[in-house]
Structures are given as C-alpha cells and as structure tokens.
Amino acid sequence: MRIRNVVQLHTVNRMQAFGWPLLIMCFSLALVLVIGGLVLGVGGPEARAGMHNGMQWNGAIFALLGPLIGFGFTAMGQYFPLALGLGLTRREFALGTALVFVGNAAFYATVVTIGKAIELATGGFGLGVRFFDTYFTGIGPWWQTLVQTFLLILAVMLVGAAITTAYHRWAQPFLWTFWLTLATIVVAVAGATILSEGFRAALVELARMPWIGWMGVIAAFGAVGAAVWLTLVRRAQAR
Question: pTM higher than 0.85 for the full model?
Fold first, then answer.
C-alpha cells in the first residue's frame, strides 16, 4: 500500500497545507485585537464587558476553519486526478486522504485549543476579545474545545470530499440537483420559521440540546459524508 505517497502528495506544498491557514488565522486575530483595542480605548471597561459577551458568536475563527472546509473539495478536485495519473489506486488514495483528514483535524484542533487556553488565561489577550473561545469552537472546558473542533473540521472535510466526488461521478446534473435541493431546504426552513410558531419553538428546543447531543449530530454528519465519499470514489471519473 502506497498510503505514504498519498500523504506526501497532499503535504508536499507546506505553505498550502499548513502555512497559509495559520497566516490567515494570525491576520484575522490581529484584526480582532485591533477592534478590541479601539473599543477599550473609546468605550472603556463597560464597552469591553459588552464586547466580550457579544463576541461569543464571533465568526472570525472561520478564517482558519474556512480553508480547512475547502480542503475536502481540493483533495478530490485537484489531487484525485493527479493521484490516478501517477498510478495510485483509488483505495490507496482514499485511505491516504482519510489519514490526512484526521491529521489535519487533530493538528488544527490542537492549535485552537491552545489558542483558547492562552485567550482565557490573558483575559482575551488583555482586551476582553473572543477569537478562539466562541460557540463555534466550544465554550466549555478545554477538552470539549478539542473534541468539538476536531469533529467539526473532520466532518466538513469529509462532506466536502463527498460533494466533489459526487460531481466527479455525475458531473453537471449533480450540481444542479444539489444546489436546487439545498435552496429548497433553506427556503422551506426560513418560511416555516417565519410563519409557524410551533416550528420556532422546536428550533429553540433544538438549540438547547446538550453539548454531547450536538457532538453526536456533527459526528453523524461526518459519518454520512465519509460513507458517501468512500462509496462513490470507487467509480468516480477523474475530471
């Protein structure tokens, strides 16, 4: 099995594999720190406290998670045809890519967890800001952040790989079907939220689901993506 060759294929460009996501994260963090400094300088401690609470939903961390979400698309869109052209089998590519997905999820989850620990220890880097300590990465103990971020990154990479593989398998008709279906679901949910009080109440109850329940949802999401990806990769055409 030439799994090591697949891993090297994904990581030979170190800047693309590791450097750019971390640099983009640092740039986004710098912007958050500048905003925190301005708020503290203009509004004082009261504004600092309000900002700290409001930043629980701060999405700046997606400057790191965003490129990783796209990694699943890149793996199948760019490296899958190249791997087959180099003589690697579909099985070898799938196993090696899955190993890279797990490694990426573990590495960046560790980065986020360490960043959160520093952020909490310094009171939001001395400015009361939130970058790592948000609902998207987990606001519980450090181990919850590690687990949540790992599952989230792994799940979206697997789903991204599944979507791209489905495109390789069915080409343009799949894209039309996928986007129309997604748009229909979004419109239906938005309409039900606006028009149905019962549906809104159900969404509120869903939001109150315990942390472990949400982790189960994310894990199931990733498992479905993995199953679809590993099933379709056997017959997908390299485009």
Answer: yes
